[in-house]
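Hi R.,

Here's the chain you asked about this morning:
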Amino acid sequence: MFLACGISLMAQSHPSADNSDGGVNEVPSTLGQRHYENSLMVGIGATNILDTYISPEDYTGMELRLLGQSTRWLKKHRSWKRTFTHMGTVAFASPRADNIDYLSGMYTFDLAYRHIWQLNNGLWLEAGAQAEAGLGFLYNTRNSNNPAQARLYMNLGPSAAASYSPLLFGKLITLRYEVAVPLVGVLFSPNYGQSYYEIFSRGNYDHNIVPTTPLSAPTLRHSFTADIPFRRASLRIGYLGDCQQAKVNDLKYHTYSHLFIIGYVKNL
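And here is the predicted structure, written out as tokens:
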């Protein structure tokens, strides 16, 4: 089950393209002349964490996330762009009894290549592929048996976006929706009842590197943002939803994050 979950990209003014047949246009030269776009954002909101290796209970709390993005339009193919995204996350969560705490940390990096199309009504569409890797931990402050869990994964899947730039209050505001859904990947997981001492000290491998698909790890990250021009940059505000799930080795894991994000975008 997916929870409604949004991270964003790109703030800029898009000129309309002239196409008499009403079809889809190639990216106009004015966009192709833009080489780079950098953004830095902060997200804060609610999180829900479950990891049955540590506890059968859901933990809820607050999450803080720092996001950086760098986008480059490819010089030889102006209708393609490449985007790097870095995210650093820290979360604190507690169960209903509020007598134990989870401390969670995660760093993720993804690389996306997307083709860009512009429709005559000012709507921009993007579609392509995205590769992502993540490394992190989950620590239970009171659990003496299996107090921590490592996070390590890599995945690959489609990525898409849609942007629209209406004129509001004399400014060209960029509205953007972006979504990514992994299709294949691998992740690290101890097996049910297996300790980290067995894995790393005794070298007892027990299906600890697990292939994943949408059946075993249904995952979704999506966002909706608005970029508001301000002097030579843009203010970005919006929503980021991140739904990470896995059921492998008779263990269940999920992290559902709903974040308000704010930051700036700079074209170079």
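One quick note: The chain is about 5% helix and 60% strand.

Cheers,
M.
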